[in-house]
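Team,

Forwarding the record for the chain on the shared tracking sheet. I've put the sequence and predicted structure together so nobody has to dig through attachments.
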Amino acid sequence: MDIHDQPTEPWMNRDNEPTNVVPGTVVTPPSKSGRISRRALFTGLAGAGAAVAVGGVALAEWQQQSHSSTNAIPGSQSGSAANARIGHLLRRTGFGVHPDDLASYTSLGYEGAVNKLLNYQQVSDQALEQRLTTAKLDLNKAPSQQQWWLLRMAGTQRPLQEKMTLFWHGVLTTNYQKIGGPSVYTRMIVQNNFLRTHAFDTFDNILLGITSDPAMLFYLDLTRSRKNAPNENYARELMELFTLGIGHYTQADVTAAAAALTGWHTKGGTSVAQYNPRDHSNKEVTFLGHTGQLNYKDVIQILANHPAAAAFLCRKLFTFFAYENPSNDDLAPLIDTYNKSNHNVGAVMKTLLLSPQFTSDKAYRARVKSPTEFVVGSYRALDAQTSGKELPAQTTILGQTIFGPPNVAGWPGDKVSATWLNGGTWLSRLNYLNLLIAGGRSRTSVYKPFDVQAAIEKYKIDTPETFVTHFSSFLLDGVLDEQRKAQLVSYFTTPDPHSRKGNVTLSNGKSYPLSKVRGTLYLLMASPEYQLN
């Protein structure tokens, strides 16, 4: 083989573009101290390629142990500060940032952006609904259900509603593999639509709905519970994992709740639930200090009003949307809102999003993106135009199967985000980026390359510096120091005589190798900051 047919870098293909990374690639481990500076990580990315410069374990360690002032939102008086605040808001309340979204929400100001996200009913999502209808997906099949939901996340104009639906799916957990078999897989869609419709409802109504949900009835065996033989599974998880947490109830409370919850059943092989008063236990029980002939409505009312429920829910919300291990002081305003608003989740979310903690340096890029956030966010950011058939496999490869949490406790990464990353999932993230940018074939789909030329023409990109500034503005909040920007511009402008992919022409008429342009975008998205939410 002629030397000119060899890649110019060990991580580049013969056209000098980033290659798909395969398991087994050597990665740099964390230092003995467990700390890796952001500068060192980026320098490695730019110099030797993301695949060999940093591993998922190193990034997770860095994120978990070295969250320092380098993660701070830029000074409040700078233009980049508003950009970063809105970018942070859109990542946390949705799935990535598209340049058009960034411009639209920034024009509203931070509080106006929050109001638009919360008042999603005022925003039409008709175009998405039409696209999903046109797709004619068979929602009786699990892969099609996953495709349907991931396309919703990618295309919605109501990002916070969809993000809340994902939050509830990870808290009030159900797995499609245990809801009664393939003939009733539509139970997952029924549940998903309920969670979406009631995403900002009162906690009481959400708990009432999930208690009578067909998928949940089967998943936690409430449909098998009879007045003469109450099943305790749902009663126990309702308190331990859904409302109170360990330490706030006893086995006697589990037994009492199980009796009070009898009467709900799935209706044969359908996605319908029904309440049968004749199969409800009327025996007197004492549940969390309340004595009487209680039913499921009584159980939910007692739980939603329990002092531990407010702290439990608010801690879940704060951890998912802001940062891990919140203090009691962090949670106090949310708990106060919960109690004063009659347990309204929308009101609690408004308090959270407008709190100083949410936009603090401690919250900024404090969580590793979940597989769903990473896959859907990258798909949205680059305007990927596919059927979405490949999306379920991508999130699964990265460690998150939609509609299939590992157990009733949900995904560990929702609680400790660093667990989303390891050497294998990190490399899979890079493979996915390469497919989105350069195109290629996955196991389930063929990706068209990202149309760099179209983006240049749409946003009137006239210089390499403008290219880096434009893409970093929504991919990295524009938080890119001059040295790092210079590295990317230098890479962009370096000649590539061996590339066979042609050129890209900027709006000033000057052309550059397509391989270098794509490679610059790849380096931006393979950077540590892009992996963090």
